[in-house]
Amino acid sequence: MPGAESGAIRTEHRADPTGDISMPESTPIVPTVGEIARRLGVALHRVEYVIRARHVRPSGRAGNARVFTEADVDRIASELRRIDAEKGGSHVCNR
Fold first, then answer.
1. 3-state SS assignment for residue 48
2. H/E element holding 77?
3. pLDDT digit string (tens) for 13-40?
4. What is the CATH number for 53?
């Protein structure tokens, strides 16, 4: 989600079904594949490769978009660093 801070929490107020009370609902902002690539400063296809090759499962979906946890982002970043080290470090991973 563009412009979202890492670890940020979005709070929305939803009306109670009876219409009496507005209850706050905290929803964590979770990154999509594109957001992960942007955060790490790498091409989208590299993130897709790691997700596919290392069997990283999305934590859920937002519409048709896969969303991941911060732990998944760390795992993807770690795998990209490992791949870069094996290949001679030609790509940048900023995490």
1. helix
2. helix 70-87
3. 455 556 655 555 666 678 999 999 999 9
4. 1.10.1660.10
